[in-house]
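Following up on my earlier thread - several people asked me to post the actual chain instead of describing it. Fair enough. Here it is, all 333 residues.
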Amino acid sequence: MERRRLGTTDLELTSVGVGTAPIGSGRDWPVWWGPQDERESIAAVHRALDLGVNWIDTAPFYGWGRAEEIVGRALAGRRNDVLLFTKCGTFPDESGSRMDLRPESVRADVEASLRRLRTDRLDLVQFHDVDEETPIEESWGELQRLIDEGKVRHGGISNHPAEAVERALSVGPVGALQYQYSLLYPAYEGDILPLAERQGIGVLTWSPLAGGFLADDFDLDTLDADDYRRRHPFAQLELASLRGRFVPSASGTSAAQRRSRWRGCSVTPRLRASSSGSGTSGRLSSCPAWRTCNSTQASCRRSSRQLPEQERRADENERLGAEPVPAERQRVE
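Reply from S.P.:
Thanks for posting it. Predicted structure:
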């Protein structure tokens, strides 16, 4: 499988990775992906590794540690086969979740992730979201200390404005940026991607298939009755015409692979390991075909521009007339 250097770090990543939000899903978590089977989740992780995928991205937020614990069990005896990424700063509270990136919270969260993941090092730790109360310089300074101690190899930033990334850079290196990015959500093309290119920072994308809505066989009617995607703004869109523009290639590359590859090689997508919805171990068997994707960046971007603005910015609920979706459900990976 094709590998890419993550920005200026020493990390060589396969062209797709494994995301783990759904496997942490439970009734005690704000985002319900439908019932999850831990054995199938572990099998999906193993299948990805067997196919050559070399990185997994998880977070304490995913089921309040449940996803990290499952990943830790899945990697028993295989830790050296994979680059392990997680996040920090999201904690449960009575409203669902809150961000806390105070230095002591960053350290406590990282230490807890190390225990759940059964490892003594994390290859990438990312600030999951914005803490409006704590200057990012203080938070980033603490992460740099964790790097100096050998517990973390690189620091990354997720879901922050460009200005915050610049402020973090004044303290220490930023190894990666991670943002929602897909044909249905190209919102960061104007600021984050140019910043990453200018600073030489690698970009990871979450939800490259828009929560499964761009998957070849996605069917909203087959989802669990309480699956959050039934109420997502994307559920109001007619996507057949978009899927039709990305037909399977003669080389065997699936249409979904081509949709995730539409922007070229400047971003690295992450697929989910899940026992329901998209990202199952069976679908992971198609991952090697990503390296043969023959869609050009220009043709893919033309297709994106042809989308009605309503489809391209489905997050604008008022334009869709959709029921507002809680913030944590809009951003969940």
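Residues 262-266, 274-332 have pLDDT under 50 and may be disordered. That should answer part of your original question.
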